[in-house]
Amino acid sequence: MKKIFLSLILLAGTISAIVSCSNEVLDPVASSTAINMTSPTGGTFVLAGSTAGTTVFTPAWTSAQFGFSAAVTYSLQAVKSTQSFDNNSQAIVLLTSNSDVESNQKAVSQRDLNNLLLSAGGSIGTSTSFKIRIIGRPSTQLASSTNGVFAVSNEVSITATPYDTFDEFDKIYVPGNYQGASGYGSNWSPGDAAVAKLFSAGNNGNYEGFVWMNDSNPSFKFTPVPAWSGDKGESNGSGAYSGVLGTASNINPADGAGTYFFTVNWPALTYTMSKRQVAIIGAATPSGWGTPTYLTFDTNPTSPTYQMYTKTLALSADEFLIRLKDDWSVKMGTLSGNTETATTGGQYKIKLNGGNMKVPTAGNYKVVLDIRNSANYNLRLMAI
Fold first, then answer.
1. Given pLDDT bands bounded at 50, 70 and 90, which one contains residue 32?
2. Closest CA to 250 of 187, 183, 181
3. Could you report the per-residue pLDDT of 34-53, keeping only the tens digit for each?
4. 3 state DSSP class of 270
5. What angle do CA 302, 181, 255 make, to 5 degrees?
6. Contact status, residue 179 vs residue 187, Cβ threshold 8 Å
7. What backbone phi and psi angles, to 5 degrees, belong to 232?
8. What is the pLDDT of residue 277?
9. Which contiguous run of DSSP H or E holds residue 22?
10. Which helix (H) or strand (E) holds 21?
11. Is the pLDDT of residue 173 over 50?
């Protein structure tokens, strides 16, 4: 009996030793060397929506070494100059290098840097000081890991003024008599900062967008600049819809107050105009697929959801869509066209006639639909 007992003890010790050795092989303790970022060395950088695609600078750095052979993912991190970095600070991935093929430099566009600085807490139109650095991690390591292996570079101070991402796209303005009652500033004021705009996702003269007109007899024109210069209205003189732009008269929709969807081909001087509902519908909503729940347009300039459509309601972990027409001919959903689970909190990009979305977890939400910019239709589910 003693022999059996001793054998069991020896076997357990052997297994423990094997497991310990295995863990050492699977989870090596690796050292890392610091990265030297040689470019940029600092400075003030000009950012603008009109030049968003151009290079603002090209970071260059030395290689990270972890004590074992591995592809390395290099990212550019940024924080405000008054803050400190951690391994999960806001970042954009620059490149992934194999140990034998390392260029260790990558051009950064104004668009990418602008998005990074906004994510790091920069304010639109405000000159702000930031710190940037390069961080390297083994490519097989999860980006969300907080206790993994990292190599970081020296910190570099820069100054930049983030711009509104709307400024990356051409736009036309929609001044009219409905502005004051609808949260778009003063009536007939194309230069008002709050005036409704239609955007061109392709910057090619074709514009589209939604405008809430809280007036029983709305009237408006289109202008290519925020002033009464080059404005276009109806070509027929009566203001009734013809689909052809000219300078004869204001455009006067016959369907009264509500949300209107426009497309405008400015070079061809043609346009379309149709009234739309804006509602959430689906099994995730209290009313199911049979009855839409209408969203409310936010006209409060001090609200974080200003000029967006919102509704607070209890949602179940099920599917839904944004429906824009009762006959289901116009809806909004996933970019892929397939059923997808929407994210909570952040912007979830959607498109006209996309696929069903799904609520990730049952609960109370503020649904926020942002359709101000046709190049970036998005939905947010804000847990409350």
1. low
2. 187
3. 899 999 999 999 899 989 99
4. strand
5. 130
6. yes
7. -130, 140
8. 94
9. helix 2-26
10. helix 2-26
11. yes
The one-letter code for the residue type at 169 is F
Joined together, the tokens standing for residue 49 give: 């929506």
**CB-count burial class (<10 Å; 0-12, 13-18, 19+) for 78:** buried
Dist CA 104 CA 121 (whole Å): 27
Position 32: which residue type?
A: S
266: pLDDT strictly greater than 50: yes
Q: For residue 314, what are the CA distances in angstroms to 130, 318, 362, 382?
A: 40, 12, 8, 11
Token output for 84: 């400190």
Residues in Cβ contact with 58 at an 8 Å cutoff, skipping those fewer than 6 apart: 39, 40, 105, 106, 107, 108
Binned at pLDDT 50, 70 and 90, residue 119 comes out as: confident
What CA–CA distance (Å, rounded) separates 332 from 357?
9
Residue 369, number of CB atoms within 10 A of its CB: 23
User: Cα separations (Å) of 74 from 63, 67, 341?
Assistant: 9, 17, 29
Greater pLDDT, 329 or 29? 329
* Entry pTM: 0.75
Token digits for 323? 């429906």
- In what helix (H) or strand (E) does residue 129 lie, and over which residues does it extend? strand 128-138
Tell me if 74 sits within 8 A of 104, measured CB to CB: yes
Structure tokens at 96: 């992934």
What pLDDT is attached to residue 290? 94
Comparing CA positions, the residue from 219, 241, 240, 221 lying closest to residue 231 is 221
Mark out the alpha helices in 298-383 (DSSP H runs). none
State how beta strands 72-80 and 91-97 pair: antiparallel
pLDDT at 13 over 50: no
